Predict the structure of coproporphyrinogen oxidase.
Amino acid sequence: MSPPTTASAIVSSSSSSSYFTLFPLTSTSPKSKPTTKLSFNFSKTQTRNLTLKTTTTTTIRSAVSIEKEVPETERPNTFLRESDDHDSPSSSSSSSTVRSRFEKMIRKAQDSVCKAIEGADGGAKFKEDVWSRPGGGGGISRVLQDGAVWEKAGVNVSVVYGVMPPEAYRAATASAEVKPGPVPFFAAGISSVLHPKNPFAPTLHFNYRYFETDAPKDAPGAPRQWWFGGGTDLTPAYIFEEDVKHFHSVQKSACDKFDPTFYPRFKKWCDDYFYIKHRGERRGLGGIFFDDLNDYDQEMLLSFATECANSVVPAYIPIIEKRKDTPFTDQHKAWQQLRRGRYVEFNLVYDRGTTFGLKTGGRIESILVSLPLTARWEYDHKPENGTEEWKLLDACINPKEWI
């Protein structure tokens, strides 16, 4: 699962200098961009300003100026700072409007998806945790566990404020003239993984996020950077072509409303990203995925992200309603658990949101909500050629064009 963008610092001290690397969380693009990995060498004098105690053999990993969360008893109307809430008298910038509208969109999407999930289950309810940060930001984590239909369903939203070093900002923007000063950033997103119990009902993952940097202090007029990312993908244990075609058709319809090149481009991007390298196979049957998207009009991309988030329920819930009560055997369940094992492997080894959170001390319950309750690993398991299990594995090894 991919939570909204934050940043991490990795500082390794040597006898002459310290090495600093900044990783934006959502840098999953196959394109080569300067924001994917930024590296800098600082002198000893500069390093002291980081207030990190190092020795010649110590490596320190920490989040860059991101406050720890504080539990809350009630949901606030917004997690935005007052200056970013466009309903506030102090808010006037177009940037604040985009932040506010995006937060409202993801919270509305969280409500609609959770309502549909509870409706399909027929009885189980989401457990909700609300948290905030003293300097602004926060989130709502919702988990439904061990229901009639759902083994585990998580739907999270969050708003994050942080600060990155000025050197990272200069490298990202190629603005050598920018004066030193901390570079504030903002990130917001919705992230969800839905694991049904029935092996004939597919798992779904979706994530949509918005990232923005402000100009550094003492650098008026410096360029602001922003981008959108996200996607929706399907991970079944058994293939029902009508289901997969329906799912991809909804994704294509959402994309085609904005650009006919989006679906083929983002479908391939999804196949390439959810790839388990050590297995030589994809996690599932794909969907759409995009990141670092800022080469279109900002309003258009905000509308596109909204359309994608609103497409989750019509793309997925009809499939669940059709398959949730299908009779199955222990053999079917065992295969589902093996595929769940692949899901765990991808998320813990390759998913950048998960691995970042584990390395930087993020909220562990939110980070690992993407994992299923149960999974299975068998030594050297190979499905027999021609079986339904083999057909699924073959589609994961050789991605298909479903529509």
Observations:
- The chain has a mean pLDDT of 81.
- Residues 94-121 form the longest helix (28 residues).
